[in-house]
Write a structure and sequence with these properties.
Order of helices and strands of chain C: HHHHHHHHHHHHHHH
Radius of gyration of chain C: 25 Å
Oligomer: heterotrimer
Structural class of chain B: alpha/beta
Chains: A mainly alpha (323), B alpha/beta (571), C mainly alpha (309)
Strand content of chain C: under 5%
Number of strands of chain B: 13
Number of domains of chain C: 1
Number of strands of chain C: 0
Shape of chain C: flat
Number of helices of chain C: 15
CATH class of chain C: Mainly Alpha
CATH architecture of chain C: Orthogonal Bundle
Largest sheet of chain B: 5 strands, mixed
Strand order of the largest sheet of chain B: 2-3-1-4-11
Helix content of chain B: 40-55%
Shape of chain B: globular
CATH class of the largest domain in chain B: Alpha Beta
Number of helices of chain B: 23
CATH architecture of the largest domain in chain B: 3-Layer(aba) Sandwich
């Protein structure tokens, strides 16, 4: 353990060769900050980077029983299997579309809810709304999907309403989950419903740090509600929004798979199947760990590219950024 | 500082866990002052090994199905009796999350429980060399030899060794299940009653009967026919043409009894005709189009709503809904109309094969891992478990407590016993734990004295559960049990063909995954298409299906079937 | 005191609000009430299902009121003593995990918020990248095993010690603090650690409360780590893991065929549908009750922020 620490630190320091002397002088100067961060960097390497040798398995026909030297190396075969499949582009499109929709909807609705909550005069009512909207986050997707399915079923509330309002005739109920193109929208709406309160928490925390005297001053100046929102509240949480947006753009490849898996069916598969489900079907379910890792690697690479792009765009606009 | 915190919380953790497990010792009371297991008449097996009593040991047992809470077998009545005989206890751990991930980590760390019953992950473990070869040990254990002897050639892996004991070895006469747990075309009893209990043999007659009934009861808002299609349960619709062709559930193939050729049926006239019938029903508003989007819960709710006239499904999948209707009928005779009645149907009224033949599921079983220290003793435990007395105990229980024997030597259960044996009792007594997951007689086995191995298959037990309504309709069709309605299953040594192991990532496995995608996508389109578009959509589907290497799949299957038949001849 | 002052000051001013303002307020309240109905419905539905006889629930049609009241589902879930022990472990990992995580996250976030820190960029990037890389289940498992964390309580704490999202979130809050405050602290001769503890952390209470909540919920809901690393040690089992087990058992129990006992007796008492509903209630109530307690820190932070101005 002891030797581990020293090697890790030395590799850290050797990372920046320019102006070495200056660098070391600063390092000594900032020894408190170094002491505060380096143990956690070691933790990071131990827990997050060490197992990355596992990525080599993407180039193998990995069998868990074999030792590293006994594995059969297959080069890019696993990746070829992924990319050569005609469905790959489709599942990639679905992944990006669904997570894109979820990202935008999730952001917009959460910020709006935070603003609306901030406008409430009654603290008690505000807390009640906060708590109640936060609750659906604790539904597992199985439960949430079950409720979405029954809401959208032929005898569910939506079809019943449509019949009552005369939009459709009895017997012509709409199979919402059977319409491929509606799937993204259903998933997006379902995710908002489930996560809106949860997503709002962080913006409420950000709003809480805004100096109330700013509101008072604005009010004195006769600024109306929307101007206050626009000129004080939103700027006050801007950096949080941007930082979270960047991190989440990096996450676009992760559209989750539970919801898609549970709400997906043969009729909407062209729009519901994403990379995770695809990799699950041909990877883990066939005991092909290598394919699963290859899929994961592909997602990581795309994610990091997206992250860097988003970060640079933010940098160009002079706003906050992640690094 | 952080260290201090760490030790502090660690100490707290220890205290908490210590106090928490203090309150755990209250299951000693229900240990019935047990009489020894009933020794039924001349068992063909040997007596329990009566060597010098050995030290008590506990072996770990990993089970790839989460069918019960984790347990030490000696906490159950059956397990305790077995421990008294052998000194062996098993600590069973059930899988909870993803089976393959768990098994993968076991393999990668080369650290196994003593005994593994890995369900669907068995090929991974065999492939990894996790199991020891049992061939020699089987020879040394007379009961194992007796039960599995006839199947040994089929149990051999590709390298000629035997790595696990399957759990479905038929012993003695074939005892049919009087209930229908297999596939059947179900119909509400009132339909048959109203039509004067007609003898229905073909699918078309059945569908016509439904159509007539619905049109006569227009105001009742009835659904003629629904299908279960949710997720992996899609086979409940996809398998129907296979059954209508007169084949049992071999999965994706129909196997010709003479030539042993395996043929898929997904683009045959049979499937087309079936889907066209559903299409026709859909156009007439008789088919529930939500069948293709409903989940399993919604499906069961519809079945128990009394609004669905007919459906095809396997008994074990629709059991909950049907039990509910039956319980209602038990309480109120008039509800008997809504209970479902199973029918064996084919296209032309010829012999059905909906009942499973005595099968030998080759790709499931229990094996001893390379980490086990004393394989001999584990095998001896299994050998002891397989003697007829213990098989009676694990299946019927203890004489005078969970079953009785009449003057003719027939086993039966009294109404009180039946009432007593509920789910908590099953766990406590151990019926649940010794149900399926051990080397044992197959479910349809018959004991040496002629009693059915499984209580549920004993006609005396079955009769006791019948209601007046049940008796009426069984009488009307001139049978004593539901299974009598169905043809006797022919002998198929390969059955079930879906149980023939396929290598990981093999073309066969890939074919199955892809075929699954294609049919799940197109069957709804075909059924819900306007009747005028039927041919067009069907052509689209067959074109898409044609992209799969079905000939290769069938060829592989034919080879496997022939091997299985050869292996069965060796005995 | 400061609390009420900041709450009432804007209120007084808003009293003479315009008609437009009133309409907005009413529309806002109506909208939020509708949202609450949509959010509350699933819970009432699950509560009703959990209090309804399992076999009866199969028929469907349970909305917000049980049809055949029964406590059997709860009895089934709580019949096993294991559940109580597992609940203790769940709370323990929640408390230890949250304390460790929040503290560690705050320390690292502080260091990478110092603009002149020489390792700032390196540390930031090293952390951020881990959010997007996933070595795979088996390499992760072998790593944890080699770190001797299998069969240990600490496997719940160490691997998830610092989350990237929470880290960056806290950093961006610290970034927003006026530099003048920290400058003055340093001039006073306070070390970095002391600056963090006495100045930065109190000012960051809202975000710390937020990440505490996130971490607590994460700790509470986790069960895959129990499954992968501690499944053979029942003393380290957690509530969510036990609930998963019970759920899976209930599905086996309900599909148990009549093959081995009489069908009458096999008529099961629980179904996955009703057990899942019971689980939802049992597992989420503690988390829902926790939230109102944390909400007050959002307001408290505001007053501290007010003082600083």
């Amino acid at each position: 353990m002891e030797s581990n620490i020293t090697t890790a630190t030395s590799s850290v320091t050797s990372n920046k060769p320019t102006g070495l002397k200056l660098f070391f002088r600063k390092l000594v100067q900032q020894r408190m900050l170094v002491l505060m961060s380096v143990p956690f960097v070691i933790w990071l390497f131990l827990f997050k980077y060490m197992p990355l040798w596992g990525w080599t398995t993407a180039f193998q026909k990995y069998k868990p029983a074999r030792s590293f030297s006994e594995q059969e190396w297959v080069g890019w075969d696993q990746f070829n299997f992924l990319f050569s499949d005609e469905r790959f582009l489709r599942v990639l499109r679905n992944t990006l579309a669904m997570s894109g929709i979820n990202l935008i909807l999730g952001f917009v609705t959460a910020v709006i809810l935070a603003l609306l909550l901030n406008e409430l005069r009654s603290v008690i009512f505000k807390r009640v709304v906060q708590t109640v909207t936060y609750m659906p986050h604790f539904l597992s997707w199985v439960v949430a999907a079950g409720i979405i399915q029954s809401t959208l079923s032929t005898d569910g509330i939506i079809n019943v309403l449509l019949i009552k309002l005369g939009f459709i005739d009895k017997g012509n109920e709409i199979l919402f989950l059977g319409i491929p193109k509606d799937f993204w929208g259903i998933l997006g709406a379902g995710t908002v419903w489930k996560e809106i309160g949860w997503n709002t928490i962080v913006y409420l925390a950000a709003i809480a740090t805004i100096d109330p005297s700013q509101y008072e001053a604005a009010e004195m100046d006769g600024a109306g509600r929307f101007r206050r929102m626009w000129h004080i509240t939103l700027p006050g949480i801007r950096s949080v929004i941007i930082v979270l947006l960047i991190l989440n753009i990096g996450n676009l490849m992760q559209s989750g798979f539970e919801a898609q898996y549970l709400l997906g069916n043969g009729m909407n598969i062209d729009y519901s199947e994403n990379i995770d489900i695809f990799v699950l079907k041909y990877g883990l379910e066939q005991s092909n760990f290598s394919l699963a890792v290859a899929g994961g690697m592909f997602k990581s690479v795309v994610s990091i590219v997206l992250l860097v792009i988003a970060n640079n765009v933010a940098k160009r606009f002079g706003g906050s950024r992640v690094f | 500082m952080a260290k201090k915190l760490l030790y502090g919380t660690m100490a707290a953790a220890l205290v908490l866990s210590a106090t928490a497990c203090g309150g755990n010792n209250n299951d000693e009371k229900n240990t019935a002052s047990s009489s020894a297991p009933a020794s039924s008449a001349d068992a063909s097996g040997s007596a329990p090994a009566s060597e010098a009593p050995k030290d008590k040991v506990t072996y770990s047992y990993f089970l790839g199905v989460a069918n019960a809470p984790d347990v030490n077998t000696n906490e159950t009545t059956i397990g305790r009796l077995l421990e008294e005989q052998t000194g062996v206890n098993f600590k069973i751990e059930h899988v909870v999350g993803d089976l393959k991930a768990k098994v993968g980590t076991m393999i990668a760390s080369n650290d196994y429980p003593d005994v593994i019953n890995p369900d669907a992950a068995i090929d991974m473990l065999v492939d990894a060399g996790a199991f020891i070869d049992l061939t020699d040990l089987i020879e040394k254990n007379p009961n194992i030899k007796r039960v599995y002897g006839p199947f040994l050639p089929q149990m051999k892996a590709a390298d000629g060794k035997i790595y696990y004991l399957p759990i479905t070895a038929q012993v003695g006469e074939y005892a049919p299940d009087p209930e229908i747990n297999q596939g059947a075309f179900w119909i509400q009893r009132r339909v048959l009653k109203e039509a004067g209990y007609p003898k229905i043999k073909t699918f078309d007659e059945y569908m016509n009967l439904i159509e007539e009934f619905v049109s006569k009861h227009k105001d009742e808002d009835l659904t003629g026919f629904i299908s279960l299609t949710h997720d992996w349960r899609f086979f409940a619709i996809a398998n129907v043409p296979m059954h209508l062709d007169g084949y049992p559930n071999d999965g994706n193939v129909e196997i010709d009894m003479n030539t042993l050729e395996a043929k898929t049926y997904f683009t045959t006239d049979s499937t087309k005709r079936f889907l066209q019938k559903l299409n026709d029903f859909n156009a007439k508003g008789l088919f529930d189009k939500a069948s293709f989007v409903d989940n399993y819960d919604q499906y069961l709710a519809k079945l128990s709503s009394k609004k669905v006239v007919g459906f095809f499904d396997y008994g074990w999948q629709s059991g909950n809904a049907r039990n509910l209707l039956r319980d209602a009928a038990r309480a109120d005779q008039s509800q008997d109309d809504f209970v479902y009645f199973p029918m064996p149907l084919t296209w032309d009224g010829s012999k059905d094969q909906l009942q499973d033949p005595p099968g030998f599921v080759k790709n499931r079983g229990i094996g001893i891992s390379v980490s086990a220290k004393d394989p001999e003793r584990i095998m001896a435990f299994w050998d002891n478990l397989l003697n007829e007395e213990n098989q009676v105990m694990k299946s019927w229980g203890i004489k005078g407590e969970t079953y009785d024997v009449d003057a003719n030597g027939r086993f039966f259960r009294t109404a009180e016993m039946i009432k007593m044996i509920d789910e908590p009792f099953n766990l406590k007594f151990g019926f649940r734990y010794f149900n399926f997951d051990w080397p044992q007689y197959g479910a349809n086995s018959t004991l040496a004295d002629g009693n059915a191995f499984a209580p549920g298959f004993q006609p005396e037990v079955f009769q006791l559960g019948l209601t007046e309504g049940d008796k009426t309709i069984l009488n009307a069709y001139g049978v004593k049990t539901y299974s009598e309605l169905f043809a006797k299953p022919d002998d198929r040594p390969w059955f079930p063909a879906w149980g023939i192991p396929k290598a990981q990532g093999s073309p066969e496995q890939i074919w199955e995954t892809k075929h699954d995608e294609v049919i799940k996508k197109y069957y709804p389109k075909i059924v819900l298409a306007k009747p005028a578009d039927f041919e067009k959509v069907w052509a689209e589907y067959t074109a898409e299906f044609g992209k799969l290497d079905t000939a290769g799949y069938e060829k592989w299957y034919t080879e496997q079937i022939k091997l299985a038949v050869e292996a069965a001849k060796v005995k | 005191m400061a609390n009420s002052a900041s709450g009432t000051a804007p209120k007084k001013l808003r009293r003479d609000s315009s008609i437009g303002d009133r309409i907005f307020d009413i529309a806002n309240i109506v909208f939020l009430c509708l949202l609450m109905v949509a959010s509350l419905y699933p819970f009432l539905n699950q509560l009703a299902l959990s209090l309804n006889q399992a076999m009866d629930s199969i028929k469907g049609g349970i909305y917000i009121w049980p049809r055949h009241f029964s406590l059997e589902n709860y009895k089934y879930v709580f019949k096993d003593n294991q559940v109580y022990q597992a609940t203790m472990i769940s709370f323990l990992r929640l408390i230890v995990g949250t304390v460790f995580s929040v503290f560690s996250t705050a320390i690292v976030a502080y260091t990478i918020s110092r603009p002149d820190f020489v390792l700032r960029k390196f540390v930031t990037i090293a952390f951020v990248l881990t959010a997007y890389i996933n070595p795979g289940i088996i390499p992760d498992f072998l790593n944890i095993r080699d770190l001797h964390l299998v069969n240990s309580f600490w496997v719940y704490i160490w691997p998830g010690l610092i989350g990237v999202f929470t880290l960056i979130l806290v950093r961006s809050f610290i970034d927003e603090l006026p530099e003048s405050i920290m400058e003055s602290a340093r001039i006073d001769g306070a070390g970095e650690f002391k600056t963090l503890m006495s100045i930065v952390l109190p000012l960051c209470l809202p975000v710390l409360a937020t990440i505490a909540l996130f971490t607590a919920v994460f700790q509470w809901n986790s069960w895959i780590d129990v499954f992968l690393y501690n499944s053979s040690n029942e003393k380290l089992s957690t509530l969510q893991y036990e609930l998963q087990k019970i759920l899976q058992n209930s599905s086996a129990a309900s599909s148990a065929t009549s093959a081995f006992s009489n069908s009458q007796a096999a008529a099961t008492m629980v179904t996955p549908l009703s057990i899942r509903a019971t689980m939802t209630i049992v597992a989420s109530v503690p988390m829902i009750m926790m939230y109102p307690f944390l909400q007050k820190y959002f307001v408290k932070g505001m007053t501290v922020g007010g003082v600083k101005g």
